[in-house]
Amino acid sequence: MISNSRQECKITLLIDSLRGGGAERVCVTLANSLKQNGWNVELLVLNLKDAVLQDDLSRDIAIKDLKVNHARTAIFKLAMHLKNSRPTKILVFNYELAILLVILKKILSLQLKIFSRNINTLSQKIADQKSIWHKHIVDILVKLFYRKVDKLIAQSQGMKKDLVKNYAIDEARISVIPNPLSSRIEKVAWKLDFNNVEKEDYLLCVGRLESAKAFHYAIEAFSIVAKHHPTIRLKIVGQGSLENALKDRAQVLGVAGRVDFEGFQNDMVSYYLHARATVLTSLYEGLPNVLIESIALGTPVVAFDCPSGPSEIIVDGENGFLVEHLNVKALADRLIEVVNNNPFDQDTVRVSACKFKSDRIFTQYERVLCV
C-alpha cells in the first residue's frame, strides 16, 4: 500500500530526447518505477523526434514536448513551463539543462529542488567536444553553476571523483547510484534457463558510432582474433557519423566481410544472449549500460579499463576481463581466451548483475529524491 506521503510526491523529469541512448533508457525506467510506486510523474522532453523509447513509457505519465533542438534554445519554453507549473522537484538527465535550471530558478524565484543525474566522466566528455560552445563556454558555465545543483547523482565512484577534482563540487552534494537494468532486459534475465541458450560465433559491440566509443580498437582486436578463428564474426550495433570510417578500417585490416554493422536496435536481448562476449573499447564512460545488460543475460564482457565504470562492474575472471586501457593486443588475447575456452559460468555472470536490479536502484533514488 502506498503511504500518504508518497502519494503526495510530485516530480518532473527533464531530458533532451527519448532516442535509444543509455540515459534515455534510464530515464524511462526510473519514470515508470516512480509512477508504479505512487509518485505523480511528469516528463519534459526537449524534442520527441525519433522517440523510439516512448512506447516503453507508462501511459499514465504525462509527457510535454518542448519542441526545441538544444538546451541553449530551450530557455524561453522551459521558463514558461516552470513559471506556469511551479514544480518543486526536477530530476534532469543533461548537465547543460541542469545549469539552465539553476539560472531559471534564480530568475523566477522558484522553490525548486534540482537533482541532476550526471553523464559520463564529465571532464573527459567536455574535453572531447569539438565546438567552441561546448569545449570552452559550457565548460566555464559548468564550473560556475553546476555546484549549485541541490543534488548530483553519479553512476560510479570514478564519476564522483571527477566532479570533486575538476569542478570543486562538495562531496556531500553527490550520491553514487548505479544505472538500473532496463525493463526489456530485466523481464528476460532472471527467467532464463541457460541450458536452452545456444551461443553463436560472434563478438558484440554496442553503442553510438562516435569517437568516444573508439570502435576502431575493437575492429583492430577482432582482426587479430579472426586470424585464429576463421568463422568468428564481429557485430556492431549502433549508428553514428563514423560508420563509413569504421567500415574503411575493417576493409584495411582485411576483415570487412566478417564485421556486421547492424544499425540501431531497440531490442538487444537476442544480440546479448547469443554472443560469445560483449566488447567495450571506449575512451571514457560513466557506468556503461552495455556491460550491465550483457552480464545480466549471462554473457561475459571484455573491456578496456577506461575512466570510469568498467572496473566497478567487472570482477576480473568472474564475469569478464578488464584490460589495460587502449592495449589492443591484450584485448585480443582475452577475446581469444573467451572464444577458445569459454571460461565463464553463465549463472555466475548473471548473479553479478543483481546489484543493478531496477527495484534496488529505485530504492536508492527514492531516498535521495525524498530529502
Describe the structure.
By secondary structure, the chain is an alpha/beta fold. The protein has two domains: 4-181 and 356-369, Glycogen Phosphorylase B (Rossmann fold); 187-352, 3-Layer(aba) Sandwich (Rossmann fold). It is 42% helix and 16% strand. The chain is built from 16 helices and 13 strands. Helix 2 (22-36) crosses helix 16 (358-369) and helix 4 packs across helix 6 (132-145).
Give a quick rundown of the structure.
The chain is α/β, with parallel strands linked by helices. It is built from 16 helices and 13 strands.
What key phrases describe this protein's structure?
Rossmann fold, 42% helix, 13 strands, 371 residues, 6-stranded parallel beta sheet, 7-stranded parallel beta sheet, 16 helices, alpha/beta, 2 domains
Mean of all residue-level pLDDT scores: 93
User: What percent of residues adopt helix (DSSP H or I)?
Assistant: 40-55%
* DSSP helical segment count: 16
Q: Number of DSSP strands?
A: 13
Oligomer: single chain
Quick one: overall form?
globular
State the domain count: 2
Helix and strand pattern:
HEHEEHEHEHHEHEHEHEHEHEHEHEHHH
Radius of gyration (Å): 21 Å
Distance between the termini: 21 Å
And the CATH topology of the largest domain? Rossmann fold
Mind telling me which CATH architecture of the largest domain this is?
A: 3-Layer(aba) Sandwich
The proportion of residues in beta strands is 15-25%
Major beta-sheet overview = 7 strands, parallel
CATH superfamily of the largest domain: Glycogen Phosphorylase B
**Overall SS class:** alpha/beta
Strand order of the largest sheet: 3-2-1-4-5-6-7
